[in-house]
Design goal:
Elements (H helix, E strand, L loop, with lengths): L2 H18 L20 H11 L3 H23 L2 H13 L1 H4 L10 H19 L20 H12 L3 H12 L4 H8 L3 H21 L11
Helix pairs in contact: 1-2, 1-3, 2-3, 3-4, 3-6, 4-6, 7-10, 8-10, 9-10
């Protein structure tokens, strides 16, 4: 049996297992974790095959990550029906978007979060509404963000180092705990906390230069 055939069988079995365990139905607001580790070997193989158009690999990625993407999208659009549509669109376009994914640049789960984030913001723009996402402490009171201030936030995030930006997005947009972020990114919790601290400081400096710091408060 060739390695390609064996990979295909393993991917199909894993997809079947997830479907029997409850995947494939209505979306649930929860984050799933790869096992073992933040990016399992079978997921890495499924990504390669999904890029080539393998429907079983695409099914596995959908079953593994759809609930997480849906949960993340809900945190931005605040509309469950719209979040379902956006999530479906993200996965429908996944084979095309995967052509631009570089496995060594970031874990697949973190990359997928960025795809979902962009899709959510595109939806909000189409609705002529302002996204509700903010980089903020959970205990800080929610404040509306104007379009100009949202643009300032996006610009400030864009110039952060990729690792700091990933940590801030997963912590304060996706709402993951430091432990959950460490598991998803394959880093120690200490490393995640250090990246969060440096990222928040640099983000605050960037927002201050843009005159947007009072709206999105980021503690040092």
């Amino acid at each position: 049996m060739s390695s390609a055939t064996r990979d295909g069988q393993n991917i199909r079995r894993e997809a079947d297992r997830l479907q029997l365990a409850g995947g494939g139905g209505r979306f649930r607001r929860r984050w799933t974790r790869d096992s073992p580790g933040p990016e399992s070997d079978i997921i890495a193989r499924a990504v390669v095959r999904a890029r080539q158009g393998d429907p079983e690999a695409q099914r596995l990625l959908y079953l593994r990550y759809a609930d997480g993407v849906y949960s993340f999208v809900c945190s931005i659009v605040s509309d469950e029906h719209a979040a379902e549509d956006i999530t479906q669109t993200v996965f429908a376009r996944l084979p095309i978007r995967l052509q631009r994914y570089e496995p060594g640049a970031s874990p697949f789960g973190a990359w997928l979060v960025s795809v979902a984030r962009n899709a959510s913001i595109d939806y909000m723009r189409a609705q002529r509404a302002v996204p509700t996402e903010q980089v903020r402490d959970p205990e800080v009171a929610y404040e509306d963000v104007s379009r100009d201030r949202l643009n300032s936030l996006r610009e400030a995030l864009a110039v952060l180092p990729a690792d700091q930006r990933e940590v801030l997005t997963l912590r304060f947009v996706a709402g993951l705990s430091p432990l959950e972020v460490s598991e998803r990114l394959g880093r120690s919790e200490l490393s995640v906390n250090a990246l969060q601290h440096r990222g928040r400081r640099r983000l605050r400096e960037g927002l201050t230069r843009r005159g947007a710091a009072p709206t999105v408060r980021v503690a040092a």
